[in-house]
Write a structure and sequence with these properties.
It is built from 15 helices and nine strands. It has 299 residues and is α/β, with parallel strands linked by helices. It folds into three domains: 147 residues, Rossmann fold (3-Layer(aba) Sandwich); 31 residues; 95 residues. The longest helix has 24 residues. It is elongated. 29% of the residues are buried. Bound molecules: adenosine-5'-diphosphate and magnesium ion (MG). Magnesium ion binds next to helix 3. This is ATPase.
Length: 299
């Protein structure tokens, strides 16, 4: 497969790509290296992994990172309740015939092992896409543990032994730059930065994902979003907000974007009261700019 075929595959799954993105995906598949994707919220980082799994017709296994995530939640846990229940049943039936060590072996067998995403990915029957989402939310300790897994592709469960990956997963790691990631993790991965989309890219995404939206409405929404992102906001809206807004306005049967309606529906794209105020104060200016651009380009 070459780069343009990868681009076509992603596009065919509804992902609007640009050359840098398809190249990064292509290289990470060719070199079998994890791809670390960073960028602001809502620019399509997580979506890449989902689309890749669909395009490659394989499963997506997702590890959502959060503060306090530890190895056991990412790897495996013993089903303690089932183990206890099993012991009680053995006791009640009085079927404990052999050694207690046999019993121990039984309750620490695969039947009572709950596989978490990393172990699932390693033991999957075919190479899955492993999405390690928002890795910067987890702490540094977890990051070093992760690095070990990504290098060796084997996991040791003391009670069972070492489990070696049957197929090396295709790994996508995403980060929102909540904190700096370690040099070591960066070195292990290929790197892709995705920024807010430009007007053309966002318009293509809206046209592709919001069926009922008119060309004019879509263009005006995307123009407005471009201008809005120039403001100094606490939480700059991403593509998800643009899509929500387009869906809402299309559902309200608008085929263009009146100024009053922008004001009434700001809550769809801005989720912070300070940002709402900032936008309200600049609304006339934003609208003006949007109109001027539209007139110039004959929209
Ligand atoms: N290039 C793209 N093509 C199609 N849809 C996209 C694209 N980028 C983002 N989206 C859409 O935008 C939304 C947010 O994307 P997501 O991947 O969740 O953002 P992130 O993980 O960067 O915060 C999703 O609904 C996704 O479908
Ligand atoms: Mg995401």
């Amino acid at each position: 497969m070459n780069v343009s075929q990868i681009a076509d595959l992603l596009q065919s799954q509804g992902y609007i790509t640009e050359p840098a993105v398809s190249m990064a995906v292509y290289l990470s598949m060719q070199l079998k290296k994890p791809l670390l994707i960073e960028g602001p919220a809502g620019v399509g980082k997580t979506e890449i992994a989902k689309v890749m799994a669909r395009a490659m017709d394989t499963d997506l296994i997702r590890l959502q990172c959060y503060e306090g995530l530890d190895a056991s939640h990412a790897l495996y846990e013993w089903n303690y309740q089932r183990q206890l229940l099993h012991l009680k049943m053995v006791e009640a039936q009085g079927t404990l015939s052999g050694q207690t060590s046999d019993l121990e072996e039984e309750i620490f067998g695969e039947k009572f092992l709950m596989k978490r995403p990393l172990l699932q990915a390693i033991t999957h029957h075919r190479a899955p896409v492993l999405l390690i989402d928002e890795v910067d939310r987890a702490d540094e300790e977890f990051e070093s543990f992760l690095l070990e897994v990504l290098s060796d592709w084997q996991i040791t469960v003391p009670e069972i032994g070492t489990i070696q990956a049957t197929h090396i997963p295709q790994v996508i790691v995403t980060g929102n730059r909540v904190r700096e990631l370690s040099e070591a993790l960066r070195r292990r991965c290929l790197y892709l930065w995705i920024d807010y989309p430009d007007y053309e890219k966002e318009l293509a995404i809206v046209r592709g994902k919001v069926p009922g939206v008119s060309q004019k409405l879509a263009e005006q929404i995307c123009r407005f979003m471009q201008e809005l992102r120039q403001l100094r906001l606490e939480k700059t809206p991403g593509i998800a907000e643009t899509l929500d807004w387009a869906t809402a306005l299309a559902a309200l049967h608008f085929d263009h974007l009146p100024k009053e309606i922008i004001e009434q529906t700001l809550g769809v794209i801005l989720k912070d009261w300070k940002d709402t105020r900032t936008a309200q104060l600049s609304l006339s200016e934003l609208y003006e700019k949007m109109g001027v651009v539209s007139k110039l380009e004959g929209v």
